[in-house]
Design goal:
homodimer, 330 residues, alpha+beta, six-stranded antiparallel sheet, 21 strands, globular
Chain lengths: 330, 330
């Protein structure tokens, strides 16, 4: 099943069901109006949406309309939790290696994770607004899951059962704010502005065999200003699967329905696959040549993030954003 | 105006209006059913609630009932943001001094703040459940505000205009998990389990002249196992006022309605005022005697946090929680 949220002027938007090929859509009213409602009462609501989805795919709905990703806000336009892991340890290895630091042993058994802001997400085609280019504007292409309720103390296997939906995320980062912020010891804050999400959220069964062992075994493409800079495999090198990441949250608290849990930037050992964030390219340049060469993003730049299924079709639709000055007219 | 949320079996509970003296209450249906609705549309909804509040205070509502704090869940049982500052720099000074470290100059001009989990808050009288006493269970008594929308780039003065409601918070912390977690560099995560809030949220005008310069000029009492351990002044020594804290969030992103922003533990230079978290008492013991003596909380312990107005009446009602093993029958 594929779900999305259309703009309607309200804070939570309007829930729609989207056809498998992303061509058609249908309002879900009569069943649920907002995405969070579905997650709050998944067992009751999702089978009804699934029926609508089947009819839509068979072209049997009179009031279906053409699906326009530009009319989407984030599937969950605001959420009660956005916890982002750094589950591709290769990304961490590169970052530390570029600084001449060792990767602590514990990083291979205990996931890195931070709590992100979740009150104001960006839609897939909304401009990303920043105060200044000097902050070091970087994209981060990743995969994320949206959960149901998961009890405190859940095992990774139990936690994995809590996965309800998958999305792509662009976790915008302000790299030049990070060193001072981390030095304060309280983690990322101002360096993590609003995150953007793919137009469509999909149930795991939509991935078929590509959803395996808590990972998405497909490649994630990043196009920066129209040039392909990354085609990274999101499956085999994900050190900690999504069940591990959710269980990390659940170690000391309940995880409640509608929590979004991210993989961190998808990253591969083979540099030929490119990168899912500029900071990784800069780490590679530093390791190779002693200094980074690629600059961070400028106002006017664009970034497009997309994942295709084994049938060659876009699974989630594309995140396709422009970088814009906060002071430019809206 | 005083508002609270009653248990009704749903995730968001039922909005009620509570009388100034906390003796009576009335359902707000017909106006709004959930606290977040009020914050989403403050300008339209709050005047209607205020009328109801006036009638309630004058004993003019036929369907008023006795207010029972034990029937409350958190005013916002789940929120889109919980950003917690450490605005009382004395707390930071003590913590660092006990470790033999200096306070960086920047800490006096740039607030410390972390993003907390906000998907699962505790009600004022709900037991706080933990996996193990060995995690170093500590309370943190603080003041927090709930905001409306605040634009990216807002000044501290503009941000202060975004304060809609005030609450007390008990930001539970697992002290023995903190060193390893901070060493990872991503900030607090498992060391910050679910936070509890006071029964009642109040508009700033309820504080009269005690709401001044973005601070609450009243004292916050902490009773641990029935013994008063803290009576700390929440006003004059708050280094960064709430407008400063909100503006810190707004530096690189929009702050959206229903964001909760905390002061961090209320802390005074005069040690006779006691403490608002055990870790501060242990820091003082370390500075005085070279080692901490007071142990963290045990299963069966209780903590009561309350603030009285200049009229001697409880402003927010009390947070009154027992510490319970996760494995004890619910």
């Amino acid at each position: 099943m594929k779900l999305a949220t259309y703009k309607d002027g309200s804070r939570d938007g309007q829930l729609i069901v989207v056809s498998r090929d992303l061509s058609q859509a249908h309002y879900a009213n009569g069943i649920a109006t907002r995405m969070q409602q579905v997650l709050d009462d998944w067992g009751f609501v999702s089978p009804q949406l699934d029926e609508l989805y089947t009819l839509l795919n068979h072209g049997k709905l009179r009031h279906a309309f053409n699906f326009e990703p530009k009319q989407c806000i984030a599937p969950l336009p605001r959420a009660y939790q956005w916890a982002n892991g750094s589950a591709f340890i290769n990304h961490v290895e590169l970052a530390l290696q570029a600084r001449g630091a060792e990767v602590p042993e514990s990083f291979y058994v205990d996931p890195l994770m931070y709590q992100g802001g979740s009150d104001d997400f960006l839609g897939p085609c909304e401009p990303a607004r920043f105060v200044s280019e000097a902050m070091g504007i970087d994209f981060e292409a990743e995969v994320a899951v949206i959960t149901g309720d998961v009890a405190m103390g859940a095992s990774p296997e139990q936690a994995l059962e809590g996965v309800r939906l998958l999305v792509l995320a662009n976790d915008w980062s302000l790299r030049n704010l990070i060193p001072a912020e981390l030095a304060k010891g309280f983690g990322f804050f101002q360096s993590n502005p609003a995150t953007a999400f793919s137009p469509v959220a999909v149930t795991p069964d939509e991935l078929g065999e590509a959803w395996a062992k808590g990972r998405v075994d497909l490649s994630l493409q990043s196009m920066w200003n129209g040039r392909k800079v990354g085609q990274c495999e999101a499956g085999p090198e994900m050190t900690f699967h999504f069940g591990r990441l959710i269980a990390h949250i659940a170690k000391t608290r309940q995880v409640r329905a509608g929590s979004i849990v991210g993989s961190g930037p998808v990253s591969n050992k083979d540099w030929k696959n490119g990168y899912s964030c500029i900071t990784e390219k800069r780490a590679i340049e530093t390791i190779q040549d002693g200094a980074p060469k690629t600059e961070f993003m400028k106002f006017g730049d664009s970034i497009r993030i997309e994942m295709k299924g084994r049938d060659g079709l876009s699974v989630f639709g594309a995140i396709d954003q422009d970088v814009v000055s906060l002071h430019e007219e809206q």
